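Q: I have 37 residues here and want to know how they pack in 3D. Can you give me a structure?
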Amino acid sequence: MPEIETSRLIYLILLLLMVAGWFYMQNRQGLNKSLQQ
């Protein structure tokens, strides 16, 4: 059953990347807003 574990691991990594990217974009927008003020 290693294939199932590998696919699950890839799925978790992709999910973490999406969440990390979303937080990164939110933080960048927040920094831009604070810099403009």
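Q: Anything worth noting?
A: The longest helix spans residues 2-36. The helical segments are 2-36.
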